[in-house]
Amino acid sequence: xxxxxxxxxxxxQAQKMQQDMLAAQEQLKGETVEASAGGGMVxxxxxxxxxxxxxxxxxxxxxxxxxxMLSDLVQAAVNEGLRSAQEMAASKLGGITGGLGxxxxxxxxxx
Length: 111
Description:
Blueprint: H1 7-30, E1 32-37, E2 42-47, E3 52-57, H2 67-97
Helix pairs in contact: 1-2
């Protein structure tokens, strides 16, 4: 008959994983990714906790007769920055969870 899981050991492992996750999430706040659109006309910097830190717009991208193009470039750069930041976070946090619970880590929001 198989041994039942050692609940105390599982609890300790879960607590350590939680501490490691919190430490990694804090570290992600200080890490950033940069993304651009329009050949560098719009550049954004996004932190690992998905906060847009800055948006730089090349003055040549500002055309009063075509504001829609600038809006599209900003949107594209922000979306790419968020995607890259999520990828960075997933790779860091995925190492802690060891793939538990499938692609979403532990199935917790934001993980």
